């Protein structure tokens, strides 16, 4: 069932979860956009209108995020993929290309790997924390210990309620982050406001709530993405950010070095994946993890080019560098 609620639609799943979907209109090959963990469909406000110039475009809030419901079952990639399938069916677009950012990119890849799944998918910088052996130049045992600490740090912050008077501070931080990334502050603020939840005692929290946030972190930690990539047999585009994200407030002193080692390992492993899996395309994007907010025109061009190739012919395995992405060249 799909009902109009202003600029959003609401799809009610078979198990009673309301999923918020935004219809951007357009005509052409269908595309569904998915956001990352702790974010909302507002993250696509700069990209979706550009894609809608030549595509039929929707975006959705994943289960537990934004204005979508939580559901009674734990958050898993399988449940999220079920929701995507249900939304595409409700929109009359079961053959849409699913494009996801961060955790949404991991969901998109999971949709692609399913039997009878979507025809093609795009993962924009959705790599999770990976495996210890992917941290190039660091001892795997050391990395394993640091990953335990990093996950504990993330878990402590996940879905924590705060007093209403602290909201201004949260918004100020988002505004400062937007300035550092060179993007409009209203984009970050809109995402926060769409994420706001309220506890029974009147405190606020940013969705997903604590239970769902811990479940999403557990799901990401358990997912072996490269094993999933090796199972897909339909076109997949994987993008990697070429610039480091701004420092995370309160993160341990070793965190940036850890992420730099992971970035080197990802470059190595993704290049190998593109060489050995003919259905996989890998791209580098001259931006940080927030690439769809920073570089909307380039992301829209990258996605549109991939969709066009997918429609025209089966994908070849290939590695694309930054200049390939920005000029639209392929090799």
Verbal overview:
- With about 325 residues, the protein is an alpha/beta fold.
- It folds into 2 domains: about 1-160 and about 210-325, Alpha/Beta hydrolase fold, catalytic domain (Rossmann fold, 3-Layer(aba) Sandwich), CATH 3.40.50.1820; about 160-205, no CATH class.
- It is built from 12 helices and 12 strands.
- The protein has helices at about 50, 75-90, 105-115, 140-155, 165-180, 185-195, 210-220, 225-230, 255-275, 290-295, 295-310, 320-325; strands at about 1-5, 10, 20-25, 30-35, 55-60, 95-100, 120-125, 195-200, 205, 235-240, 280-285, 320.
- The strands form 2 sheets. A 10-stranded mixed β-sheet has the order 1-2-3-5-4-6-7-10-11-12, with helices on both faces. Strands 8-9 form a two-stranded antiparallel sheet.
- The longest helix is centred in the last third of the chain and has 22 residues, at about 255-275.
- The radius of gyration is 19 Å and the shape is globular.
- It starts with a strand and ends with a helix.
- Residues about 1-5 and about 315-330 have low confidence and may be disordered.
CATH homologous superfamily (4th level) name of the largest domain: Alpha/Beta hydrolase fold, catalytic domain
N-to-C span: 44 Å
Note the run of SSEs as H and E: EEEEHEHEHEHHHEEHHEHEHHEH
User: Describe the biggest sheet?
Assistant: 10 strands, mixed
The tally of strands reads: 12
Mean pLDDT: 89
How many domains comprise the coordinates? 2
What is the highest CATH level, the class of the largest domain?
Answer: Alpha Beta
Query: How many individual helices?
Result: 12
Strand content: 15-25%
């Amino acid at each position: 069932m799909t009902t109009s609620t202003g600029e959003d639609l609401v799809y009610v799943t078979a198990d009673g979860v309301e999923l918020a979907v935004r219809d951007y209109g357009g005509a052409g090959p269908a595309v569904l956009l998915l956001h990352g963990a702790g974010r909302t469909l507002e993250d696509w406000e700069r990209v979706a209108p550009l894609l809608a110039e030549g595509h039929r475009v929707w975006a959705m809030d994943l289960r537990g995020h934004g204005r979508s419901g939580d559901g009674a079952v734990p958050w898993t990639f399988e449940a999220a993929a079920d929701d995507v399938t249900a939304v595409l069916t409700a929109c009359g677009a079961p053959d849409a290309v699913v494009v996801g950012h961060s955790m949404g990119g991991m969901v998109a890849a999971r949709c692609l790997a399913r039997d009878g799944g979507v025809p093609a998918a795009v993962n924009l910088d959705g790599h999770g924390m990976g495996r210890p052996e992917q941290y190039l130049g660091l001892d795997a045992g050391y990395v394993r210990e640091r990953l335990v600490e990093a996950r504990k740090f993330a878990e402590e912050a996940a879905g924590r309620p705060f007093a209403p008077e602290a909201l201004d501070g949260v918004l100020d931080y988002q505004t400062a982050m937007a300035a550092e990334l060179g993007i409009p502050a209203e984009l970050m603020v809109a995402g926060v406001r769409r994420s706001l939840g309220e506890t029974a005692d009147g405190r606020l929290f940013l969705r997903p709530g604590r239970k769902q946030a811990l479940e999403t972190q557990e799901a990401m930690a358990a997912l072996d993405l490269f094993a999933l990539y090796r199972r897909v047999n339909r076109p997949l585009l994987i993008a990697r950010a070429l610039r480091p994200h701004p420092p995370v407030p309160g993160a341990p002193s070793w965190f940036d070095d850890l992420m730099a080692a992971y970035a080197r390992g990802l470059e190595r492993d993704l290049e190998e994946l593109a060489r050995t899996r003919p259905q996989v395309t890998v791209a580098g994007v001259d931006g940080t993890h927030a690439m769809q907010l920073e570089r909307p025109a380039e992301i829209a061009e990258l996605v549109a080019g991939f969709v066009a190739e997918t429609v025209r012919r089966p994908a070849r395995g290939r590695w694309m560098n930054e200049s390939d992405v920005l000029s639209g060249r392929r090799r």
